[in-house]
Amino acid sequence: MREHRVQCLLMGGQACVLYGAAEFSRDTDLAIPASEENAERLAKAMQALEAEVIAVPPFLLRHLNAGHAVHFRCRHAEAAGMRVDVMSRMRGVTDFHTLWERRTTLVMDDGTLCDLLSLSLGDLVQAKKTQRDKDWPMIRPVWKPTTLPIKPIQVLSS
Q: Mind listing the domains of the chain with CATH numbers?
């Protein structure tokens, strides 16, 4: 994603792991702004990963804007079998611009800013709790009553 300058935020199970959940997630969920420019960048990144859409709907902005996820499966040797799910709107979650402003970035011990950007913990909990019951075991270890109402937390660097 970095190589193609895709604006995105890690969400879902992989983001929960960053906050301390011990569950394994088999896919990578990304929140993206549904703009033409960003969609073109994402398409190039997916091409580099030799990824193809594996379910409906197809990768079109109108589907992302309607709140549908687009699911890809990667075939590149270094990411073979990896599934990437992309969303732009999630029920009960604020717009991407606000998510971006509240994002969490990781800073390594030596002060290096890590490229990995994630939803803030509060936004992640909100995104996960509005979905399936099976998501609760993933967020329960990291959720605290003070997580909500959602506010900017743990933003280490912009």
A: 9-147 (3.30.460)
